[in-house]
Write a structure and sequence with these properties.
Length: 375
């Protein structure tokens, strides 16, 4: 059904009211909801295609993602994620020194359970450092691992020996940080331990000078250094303002992630135009639009670094790849929605926006009109 925008707004207003009252949608109502979601997604997809066509020299990484710049600077951590055995998350720290509105744990940072003294979480299982040899003798060696969740520099001294141990097995390692608490001697110690790649979430500090200087310092000790930040309107404005300063650090890559929302951070972006990708991630439409415009600027100005479109489509491809590497059945994927139900109220702004149009609209067929099945 190519449902009209007018009918879509009426339906979602009604569905939002049902949701507030705790009522479940019927199968027919759900089919109409999916038709609306599809209409929004098709319009956003068309917008993306137009913006991508305007980027000079845009490249595709095996059809799984887009980037501009030299393939030599494309982060190996992303290669592991998209073509290897996945992200390979290793968790240690349950604390953070920031409270970013885009954080998936916004508002519940003080409720994150600890991993445990002396323990590391790998694949949902707890290990001590001395267990690594046993693990790698029994299981297949991953193409790479990533240190995530939450901020490693709240206890970075615990990471050095573990990274050194993983390095001894020849496994590629990258680490995520907001960089706020990082110091030159700590970055040096990480490099000496064998860390291959570090990614700074520059949006956490809104491009603070001290973090930009930590990016510069990291380049002296760690082979691959870059930025990975969810693209928001405020971050984009600050990034453009400090663009030349940031690029002067000599960083290798900039991963601009399409912001996706969950029940923790959704309220911080209510009022923005949203869409849902493949019945999974819910994102502000502006997020990837700003990424693609930044990639166009990077290509036109010939930035020395690679700029990567870490979009919802990229994560869709990532999770298909992960299941394939796990030997799952055809079509299996780890990709899914962060919400138990469609957050109908979040889509009212885009359906009310006169500047946002559907590509094609048709009257609802008899038996599917508002008065027929939903009241």
């Amino acid at each position: 059904m190519y449902i009209s925008k007018h009918d879509s707004l009426s339906l979602f207003e009604f569905f939002a009211s049902l949701q507030e009252e705790g009522e479940m949608l019927t199968p027919r109502q759900t089919e109409l909801a999916y038709a609306v979601i599809s209409q929004i997604e098709l319009s956003v997809q068309s917008l993306h295609e137009r913006l991508i066509s305007e980027i000079p020299g845009v490249k595709t990484f095996g059809g799984r993602t887009l980037y501009v710049g030299s393939e030599r600077h494309f982060p190996r951590g992303c290669i592991s994620c998209l073509k290897g055995t996945g992200l390979g998350a290793i968790r240690k720290s349950n604390r953070c020194n920031a409270a970013c509105p885009f954080c998936y744990d916004y508002g519940v940072l003080d409720q994150i359970p600890p991993i445990g003294e002396g323990m590391w979480e790998i694949g949902g299982t707890k290990y001590r450092e001395e267990d690594l040899e046993l693990l790698l003798k029994i299981q297949k060696r991953p193409s790479g691992v990533a240190y995530v969740y939450l901020e490693p520099f709240t206890e970075i001294e615990k990471y050095y020996s573990f990274i050194k141990k993983v390095h001894s097995f020849g496994i590629y390692q990258h680490l995520y940080t907001n960089g706020i608490n990082a110091h030159k001697d700590e970055l040096k110690a990480l490099g000496e331990a064998g860390l291959d790649e570090i990614r700074f979430n520059l949006g956490a500090s809104m491009c603070a000078d001290r973090v930009i200087e930590n990016i510069r310092a990291a380049k002296d000790y760690i082979p691959m250094v870059g930025i990975e930040t969810p693209m928001t309107e405020d971050f984009h404005a600050r990034f453009i303002e400090k663009k030349d300063y940031i690029l002067s650090t000599g960083l290798d890559f900039i991963n601009l992630a399409e912001l996706h929302l969950n029940p923790n951070n959704l309220e911080n972006y209510i009022g923005e135009n949203m869409y849902m990708y493949r019945h999974g991630y819910v994102s502000p439409i502006a997020s990837r639009v700003l990424t693609l415009r930044t990639m166009k600027l990077a290509a036109e100005e010939n930035w020395a670094c690679t700029v990567h479109d870490c979009s919802n489509r990229t994560k869709f491809a990532r999770d298909i790849n992960l299941k394939a590497k796990e030997g799952a059945w055809f079509g299996a994927s780890a990709y899914g929605c962060e919400f138990e139900e469609i957050p109908f109220a979040a889509f009212l702004p885009v359906l009310s926006d006169d500047s946002f149009s559907f590509l094609r609209e048709e009257p609802l067929p008899e038996g599917w009109r508002l008065g027929d099945i939903v009241v």
